[in-house]
Amino acid sequence: MRKLIDDVRLIFKCCSLYYQDGVGQKEICQILGISRPTVSRMLNAGKELGIVKIEIHNPDNLLYGKLERELEKLFNLQEVIVVPSNPLAENPSLNPELGRAALKFIARILRDKDFVGVSMGSTLQNVARADFFVANKISCTFVPVLGGVGESRPDLHSNYLAQEFAQRFGGDCVQLFAPALFSKRSLLEEFLNEKTIRRVTDFYPKLDALILGIGSADAENSTLFRTGYVDQRTLANFGRRGAVGDIVLRYFDIDGDTKNFDEFNSRVAGINLSVLKKIPCRVGVAGGAKKIRAVAGAINGGYLTVLITDIDCAQGLLNLRKNFSSAEPLIIPNS
Questions:
Q1: CATH number of 7-48
Q2: Given this structure, which CATH class describes domain 62-326?
Q3: How far is CA 228 from CA 150, 152, 214, 225, 305, in A?
Q4: d(Cα 290, Cα 217) in Å, to the nearest integer?
Q5: Do residues 256 and 303 make contact, with C-beta atoms less than 8 angstroms apart?
Q6: Where in the chain is the domain with CATH 3.40.50.1360?
Q7: How far apart are CA 244 and CA 224, in angstroms?
Q8: CATH 1.10.10.60 intervals, the chain
Q9: Which pLDDT value is given to residue 28?
Q10: Does the pLDDT value for residue 306 go beyond 80?
Q11: Which residue, 121, 196, 219, 230, has fewest beta-carbon neighbours within 10 Å?
């Protein structure tokens, strides 16, 4: 007797009931008078014979969905979210789409009793003020990971933004009453030993997530330049040393290495980069073609697990990686 699994008509009937009519496998057994394992084998046979073709559609934009998966694999990131660019925005990182996507992601991952670190910058202010309705209040605590007392533009600093996020989510926040940058490393080390400061910094190893802006190393696009932490001469010097960007006020090169900027970086009052890398979820938000190298350096340095960006930056990252991968190896002549 011919095997049922060879009966194409029966396979079609089985697949039609399951995929088109939504009939469960148990009911199909009763309708067709066959066993559960036979139903399972017929459904698999339907795929192999081309009777069933399964396609996955991205409801927003199929192109972006494919790009996200490609970037996740290329850069070994947990998740990448790509949004349309805003050609009319003076600063691409202030793209409303970028802010909404980031706030939506944060609302998705946070849980009650989580501790969430917040860095600084206009990008994160854009996220905190994004036009997105947070449906459920989340009882988590937002923690500033940088000082910023007494500096210009307090609305861009970690303390202020931690408050804004806490208000959006109905959570709590703590405050780090410290300058962001000290004149001497020795002064910073003494300051960090103060009991009131340790009450905040003791949260850092406990953070479940961290929301990060990614700064640029050129004066035109640098929040640190606009807020007075660095001057044009310092930035030019950093550029000659290979700086491409900063994260939590620490400058790094295209490989994510910070050693050429240790004198400056060691005077920053905030989370240590070695502690930062141990936080389970590290969300970087940045957009625009001018941030490509900064974002690449942040990824290469292992500072991010999640990237939320726009199509210009995303496509640039892909091109950068492909060009790097296809580059011929450097040949050093014999001396």
A1: 1.10.10.60
A2: alpha beta
A3: 11, 7, 17, 5, 29
A4: 10
A5: yes
A6: 62-326
A7: 13
A8: 7-48
A9: 93
A10: yes
A11: 196
